[in-house]
Amino acid sequence: MRLVQQVLGSAIPLLANVAILLYVFQRFLAATRLRRKLAREMRDFGTMVERARDNLRYIGERVTRGMDEIEQDVGKELRVTSRLTTQSARLAGVLRRFAGLEENVIELVRMDGNRENAKVETPIDVSTEIEKVVAAAEGRSVDGCRERRDAARRKNEQQQQQLDENAREEELATRNPLSKFSTCGAREMARKVRVATMPETTMALALSLATRKESDEKREGAVGRDDS
Q1: Which segments show compositional bias classed as Basic and acidic residues (predicted)?
Q2: What is the 3-state secondary structure (H, E, C) of 86-151?
Q3: Does residue 170 contact residue 179 with C-beta atoms inside 8 Å?
């Protein structure tokens, strides 16, 4: 009995100690596994953080590069817009010059056609042509010139008739043939001189007016070229 009691008294603490040892060893293994798991998860989390940082850095670099490219594109578009504006202004000026040149060419062609179709004719009545030139230069019509000429002619005829009547009365009163011939001769000479002098004066007046008109046209042409 004592032996059994001794064996049982020593075996029970031994079993308790073994059980405690096994429990502690199990808890140690569990803690070791948990620590390894935590370390592995920490490494994975660090790797994920590293990758996230790399991704953020890459995204930031790409965004910066995209912004630089956008700035360059905007600068290029602004330069292109400025050049297009300048070229459009130049093109508008060239188009205006081309339109003026086209008008000049059309005018030259028209002048050449008119020159080919023109006929040089000598007027039959030079006095009438001179009167037309004078009337055009003075801004008056040919009919008005003719009316004034007819009025002057009628006035001269009336004066001549009056002079003839006076001469006849003097002839009848004196009955001197010498005075008759001398009076007629003087009257005829005065008439010839008056008739010969009027066309020359008209010609000189027409030439002076034509010269003045040409000088005015040249002056207007020079002013027009200066304005253009």
Answers
A1: 141-157, 211-228
A2: HHHHHHHHHHHHHHHHHHHHHHHHHHHHHHHHCCCCCCCCHHHHHHHHHHHHHCCCHHHHHHHHHH
A3: yes
Amino acid in position 53: R
CA angle 16, 18, 21 (to 5 degrees): 110
From residue 78, how far is each of 81, 92, 161 by CA, in Å? 5, 21, 94
HSE value, Cβ hemisphere, 13 Å, CA-based, for 217: 7
pLDDT at 116: 61
For 159, the enclosing helix (H) or strand (E) is helix 142-174
Can you give the pTM of this predicted structure? 0.33
